[in-house]
């Protein structure tokens, strides 16, 4: 056997579970870290910390289906970094969930939490399942079994799940109850995004969309955009996109186009957002909304607008459509909606991108408020929660904007500079044990 074949791998070699040629969402995150490394100074010696999840758990989730058969689903919980505090991040139920995706989402949570300076690390979870194919009983069983399987690594001081794609307050209630039953005592702080009667926080449902709106308004001031005269296009019309659209419309902006899983609608004079929200609540899609023109899916990227809000899934803005976008500002309501190649195209075209790791941090900020309220058993009113949220988001955006100006970099790179320095500084202070 040759020496080459027996040589030990580099200590910083790519982990064996990753394919160097097809990293998916995790690969996008790694490229983002590489871009920020030159700005980290002496902390760059710790940068490999950011490129490896602290812990990744893959679990089998077997349940009895209503027809008596047994089905098996694959579940994940990834804790990317816990240097600054417990892991924090949502759980999604989706048929396309992968380990690469959950790893990337957990890493973006690390960046997001550090960017707004809440005392959390990053984590994320998911089950590869289409919840639309499950009855309510099956959905509860898959939730409870998954919670039992990941129960060894979650907890109010270890890792705190929250809602994400296709999960909601009811899912969190089942998760909290399952964890509590296994622990022998009620632990409301093990999840956030719970119903109000189980220790949930007022303002949580609209928090992410409110954060998108808040940073959008702050950025508009810097680029001289009059939001009251702006045209807005929104991809995804759930809690995030719907709330952001409602808040922008209330300022006088025209929401001219909305796209979701069921279709794409357009109205140059502006859509009636309250009526559209009621339509979606009834029909589960924007498709068929009266008084709106129906567009083909791909035509959404050609809509002339001032503000574009991608609030659906990852990698929606890519090298193939970034050159067609007709907006002055992109506010990322979804996690990872823009690929690095698209980022470069948008920068060249002088389109300002407000990255997900700051733009959609409103949700985790109010999740932090919920966690604090659960520990103290003292709850704030919604006015106080919204005021605290806006104050934190404005302060975080202001510091990131200043870093972007100082280094002449994009807001995404600036956010990573701020967040990575905070994470790696705590890593350096804590040192390595043993």
- In CATH, the topology of the domain at 207-359 is named Rossmann fold
Task: Give average pLDDT, whole number.
Answer: 93
Q: Tell me, what is the CATH class of the domain at 207-359?
A: Alpha Beta
Distance between the termini: 36 Å
Number of helices: 13
Q: Tell how many strands the DSSP assignment holds.
A: 12
- Give the overall shape, derived from the CA principal axes: globular
* Element string (H = helix, E = strand): HHEEEHEHEHHEHEEHEEEHEHHHH
Low-confidence stretches: 1-6
What is the helix fraction of residues, given as a range? Answer: 40-55%
Report on this structure.
The chain is an alpha/beta fold. Among the domains are: 53-187, Rossmann fold; 207-359, 3-Layer(aba) Sandwich (Rossmann fold), CATH 3.40.50. It has helices at 3-6, 24-36, 99-115, 136-150, 169-183, 207-223, 239-250, 273-283, 340-348, 356-359, 362-376, 382-407, 411-430; strands at 55-64, 70-81, 87-94, 122-128, 159-163, 231-235, 254-260, 263-266, 293-295, 307-310, 329-331, 352-354. The strands form two sheets. It has a seven-stranded mixed β-sheet with strand order 9-8-7-6-10-11-12, sandwiched between helices. Strands 1-2-4-3-5 form a five-stranded mixed β-sheet. Strand 11, helix 9 and strand 12 (352-354) form a beta-alpha-beta unit. It is globular. The relative contact order is 0.13. The model is unreliable at 1-6 (pLDDT under 50).
